[in-house]
Write a structure and sequence with these properties.
The chain is of the alpha+beta class. The protein has a single domain, classed as 3-Layer(aba) Sandwich (Glutaredoxin), CATH 3.40.30. It is built from seven helices and ten strands. The protein has a six-stranded mixed sheet. Strands 5-10 form a two-stranded antiparallel sheet. The two termini are 29 Å apart.
């Protein structure tokens, strides 16, 4: 698959009004747990306006998707690995209607709080721009320094699930981590679009964008 080239100028001119001026409404942290940071919405320009050559890893999830939830330990390990390798990591709820309290409870229940920043894509800005259709689904971008990017990878995080209802005891291949390793060392990504197994991201109605 050819690397997909994306630019944001026209798209974000349409969604800026829905994003700019929003402030996070963080629920009070449970004293027994680490606090999780919950931006109200992803400003995708903030993700893509990095220096030329910067790698950005994104995993789209849903609190209602059993496969996303089953993969929580793998996502925590992936976030830690990305941090160690200097790769920006974003865990993004791909839902227009999930509220901050639900995300906070989900993050605490699955030990995501404190392990990473959990974000939302309520306008589907990133979903549309990256081409994601499934949760969980991983995307690796290389920024061009001008608000655009090369999409290097779009697919599964790993092979924990061979298919719906067919879960392995543990993953045998870690496709997304391998793709990140290849990108960091300048090698071709051997498999850059392995099919993700999970829950479909429900498209927004035009009035919701």
């Amino acid at each position: 698959m050819k690397r997909a080239r994306q630019t944001f100028a026209l798209f974000f001119a349409c969604v800026t009004a829905a994003i700019v001026g929003c402030a996070a409404s963080n629920p009070s942290p449970d004293a027994s747990r680490n606090q999780v940071t919950l931006p109200v919405a992803v400003d995708a320009r903030a993700i893509t306006d990095g220096a030329r050559g910067t790698l950005v890893a994104i995993v789209f999830i849903s609190h209602e998707c059993p496969i996303s939830n089953a993969m929580a330990p793998d996502l925590i390990a992936l976030a830690q690995s990305c941090r160690a390798r200097g790769v920006a990591f974003h865990l993004v709820h791909a839902s227009a209607w999930v509220d901050d309290a639900t995300i906070a409870k989900h993050s605490a229940d699955f030990d995501l709080a404190g392990a990473m920043i959990v974000e939302t894509d309520r306008t589907h800005a990133l979903v549309i721009a990256t081409g994601a259709t499934i949760t969980p689904e991983a995307v690796l971008l290389r920024l061009d320094g001008n608000g655009g990017f090369d999409r290097l990878y779009l697919g599964r995080v790993n092979d924990l699930y061979a298919a719906i209802g067919r879960r392995r005891a543990q993953a045998t291949t870690n496709d997304f981590s391998d793709a990140i390793d290849a990108a960091l060392t300048g090698r071709p990504i051997a498999l850059n679009a392995p099919k993700a197994v999970g829950c479909f991201i429900e498209p927004l109605s035009p009035s919701s964008r």
